[in-house]
Amino acid sequence: MSAQPDSYAVEDPEKALKYAIQHFKSNRAQIVEGVIKPLTLDWSHETVADSVRRQIEPSVRRLGCISDSSNLDLPGTPNWYIPAVAVVPEDVPKGAGALLPDQTLLIVEVTSECNGGTDRAVKRRRYAEYGAPLYLLVDRQEQSCTLFSKPGELGYTRTDGPRPFGTPLHLPAPFDLELDTSDF
Predict the structure, then answer these.
(1) Less Cβ crowding at N or C end of the chain, within 10 Å?
(2) What is the per-residue pLDDT for 67?
(3) Does domain 41-179 fall into CATH 3.90.1570.10?
(4) Which residues have CB under 8 Å from 66's CB, separation 6+?
(5) Cβ neighbours for 23, distance < 8 A, ≥ 6 positions apart
(6) Which stretches of the chain drop beneath a pLDDT of 70?
(7) pTM for this entry
C-alpha cells in the first residue's frame, strides 16, 4: 500500500474549489471569496424567501421565467453563491451547471446572523460586478429591505432603501409590482 501525498498539485485552483463545492456532502454550501461556507438556513429565513417567491410568482410566470435558489458562478473568482431566490428566464441554456448573475432578472438574499455582512457588502459588490440587474437585500438583522439596481464597474448606481419592514418596496420593470414586506 502506498502512502498518500500530503498535498496535490492543482493547475486551476478556481476549478478545483468549484468542483469541491458542487460535490460537497450537504450540497448546500457556497464559496465566498475563497472560503467554503455551509448554508445553515433556519425556518424564518425560508419563510421570508417563500414570501418573496409567492409575491413575485405572477410576474415570474408572465415573463416566462422560473424562480429558484440554485447555484450562481462568478467565473474568474473563488465565488460560488446560492441566493435565497433567483429569477431566471426559462430560455437560459440548461445543463451548464450554474448560472451567471447577468443571466438573472432578480437576485434576492435574506440575511442570517452568520452571513449578514457578506450579503450587505461582498455579494452586493460581486453581483453588480457580474451584471445582476436587480439585487434585493432582505436584512433581517436591520429589519429592512434595500433594492439595488443599475449595476456598474464600481457597484450598483441606484439604491432604493433601506426601507423598514412593513413599508412596500417597488420592484421595477420587468416586474413592476409592490412587494409587501410586512411579513418579513
Answers:
(1) N
(2) 93
(3) yes
(4) 60, 87, 88, 90
(5) none
(6) 1-10, 13, 17, 19-27, 94-97
(7) 0.85
